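testing teh design pipeline on a random one, pls ignore if ur not involved
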């Protein structure tokens, strides 16, 4: 079955960086757009970034200029490089793709705190 496994979260100070990874299995990775979402406590899950099969990217306004989504089809992996992190980036980050329904990983916690 399909599995998405995120890693790379942690606690950093404001201005710091983290690189999240999501390894996919049980699917043909290279034919699907992949996305990163996040959910902060008490808030709805929100889209952070998407990368298409061809490598085109889209970002939420809050992520533009600071985050970079990328993919390595040979490794079935999608990444989210996060720079200049702010306290408001604190959330659980989820990997996602949609094929006849949404598939989610278990999430990885990112905490930005001084």
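output:
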């Amino acid at each position: 079955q399909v599995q998405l496994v995120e890693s790379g979260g942690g606690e950093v100070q404001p201005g710091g960086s983290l690189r999240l990874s999501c390894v996919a299995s049980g699917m043909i990775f290279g034919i699907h757009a992949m996305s990163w979402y996040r959910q902060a406590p008490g808030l709805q899950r929100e889209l952070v970034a998407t990368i298409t099969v061809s490598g085109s990217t889209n970002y939420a306004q809050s992520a533009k200029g600071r985050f970079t989504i990328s993919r390595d089809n040979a490794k079935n992996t999608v990444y989210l490089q996060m720079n200049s992190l702010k306290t408001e980036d604190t959330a659980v980050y989820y990997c996602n793709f949609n094929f006849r329904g949404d598939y989610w990983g278990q999430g990885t916690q990112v905490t930005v705190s001084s």
